[in-house]
Design brief:
Rossmann fold, globular, UDP-galactose 4-epimerase, domain 1, alpha/beta, about 290 residues, binds NADP nicotinamide-adenine-dinucleotide phosphate
């Protein structure tokens, strides 16, 4: 039996991945590495082959118990954590000295091209510590519409961003998680390589909003703003400065970059088409119709 430790188990990717791992293979034990075991146990309920361990990226004393007896780690970088040397270096060192022999890191498309972004630094550390790895580099999550951008969608019927007419490649987290589960269960085939995973659509926010408006009674508006206005709007709303800056980089820089590469990794691997943005919006229609949080 292989033992998998999943970080970020309560987030977009972690929840979906745990579902695929438990569904695809009976001979696995999945451990959700979480900050608050009692709370998360209540949410997940009791599932066969799923266990919980206390784990905090910011508390290195939690690492050795969480990693005990683990074969494979699914690692992500929580969006709030940007101090890689402070938090990821000790964690990767602990992983390199543990029973772990396989690590899948959820990186980001283009991570190899910019030494500034945290994912690039994490990828380098994984190699430095000689941990057998796979780097999965996804494009822009469709689920941003139902998480980080959701409050404005519901309460203002707006998407407010400094993204201009830039095109984003929209990928469904469920597709990423399905591929991640496949890789984790067949690790040696993919070992020590990086793979981009994208959806089929390179679309601007204007286009994305037009798609959403096919399915809702009260239409949304895409409000293009400049970076300073975006900063001031979000600051006034109480968003943490660090997170506003992450949002700015993510949505402003693509205005000056080429359209994202479209990868066929998902369909090549699983023999089926990835989710289109239209299909995602149709699936999540009830979210987009809500007008109170
Ligand atoms: N959004 C995109 O378009 C996009 C595109 C490409 C790559 N990515 C990458 O995907 C990653 C985010 O994945 P996601 O969307 O699944 O994340 P998410 O939904 O924001 O979830 C973050 C997870 O990290 C956990 N966490 C936060 N701080 C922690 C700590 N100190 N110790 C332990 N756990 C902690 C959270 O647990 P709690 O429940 O305890 O808070 C939660 O489970 C990022 O690295 C991002 O750069 C995102």
């Amino acid at each position: 039996m292989t033992t998998f430790l999943v970080t970020g188990a309560t987030g977009n990717m972690g929840q979906s991945l745990i579902g695929f791992l438990l569904e695809k293979e009976a001979n696995v034990k999945v451990i959700a590495a979480v900050r608050d075991v009692v709370k998360v146990k209540k949410t997940y309920g009791s599932l066969k082959n799923l266990d919980f361990r206390q784990f905090d990226f910011k508390d290195s004393t939690s690492f050795s118990d969480a990693l005990a007896g683990v074969d494979t780690v699914f690692l992500l970088r929580p969006p709030q954590i940007s101090k890689i040397d402070a938090y990821f270096k000790p964690l990767l060192k602990a992983i390199s000295k543990s029973t772990v022999r396989q690590l899948l890191f959820l990186s980001v498309q283009g991570a190899e091209q910019s030494s500034m972004i945290p994912h690039h630094k994490i990828e380098s550390l994984v190699k430095t510590y000689r941990i057998p790895y796979v780097f999965l580099r996804p494009s822009y999550f469709m689920q941003n519409l139902t998480t980080t951008l959701y409050k404005d969608i519901v309460t203002k019927r707006k998407i407010i961003l400094p993204a201009g007419k830039a095109k984003f490649n929209w990928v469904d987290v469920s597709n990423i998680a399905e591929v991640a589960a496949h890789i984790l269960l067949n690790f040696n085939t993919f070992k020590n390589k990086a793979y981009e995973i994208t959806g089929p659509d390179n679309l601007s926010f204007e286009h994305a909003v037009a798609i959403i408006n096919r399915y809702v009674k009260h239409p949304l508006v895409y409000k293009k703003v400049n970076p300073l206005s975006f900063f001031l709007i979000k600051k006034k709303e109480g968003m943490a400065t660090g997170f506003i800056l992450v949002m700015l980089v993510l949505h402003f820089l693509p205005r000056f970059q080429k359209a994202p590469r479209v990868s066929t990794f998902y369909s090549d691997l699983l023999g089926k088409a990835p989710t289109t943005l239209d299909a995602f919006v149709k699936r999540e229609k009830s979210c987009f119709e809500k007008e109170t949080l």
